[in-house]
Amino acid sequence: MGENPATVQLEHRVIATITFLYIAAVWLKVRRTQLPPRIRRPMGVVMAMAVLQVTLGISTLIYMVPKDLAVTHQAGSLMLLTSILVLLGRFRVPKFPV
Q1: Which of 27, 42, 81, 95 is least surrounded by CB atoms within 10 angstroms?
Q2: How many structural domains is the chain composed of?
Q3: How many CB atoms lie within 10 A of CB 16?
Q4: What's the pLDDT tens digit per position in 59-73?
Q5: What is the domain range of residue 79?
Q6: Are the CB atoms for 16 and 56 separated by under 8 Å?
Q7: C-alpha to C-alpha distance for 1 and 81, rounded to whole angstroms
Q8: What is the rounded distance in angstroms from the CA atom of residue 80 to the CA atom of residue 93?
């Protein structure tokens, strides 16, 4: 499955679509609930990074994979991962000794 370029592209697009839809659903849920700003702001950053990443991915394909755009798409994936890790870190509740 990983040797056929067309299959790899299909898998990448399916995983990207599922990931984006999941992030959008969580973002909508966070917007509708009363969470503190320390959670809401990073979730907004995650959503913005997801939109940017999808835009970069589509642009990379439309322009037939120029190297600078492809590298930017790769860097965008790292920024999206970092923003998700920051968001998850905000959910952590510190444990204090009793």
Answers
A1: 95
A2: 1
A3: 16
A4: 999 999 999 999 999
A5: 5-91
A6: no
A7: 25
A8: 23
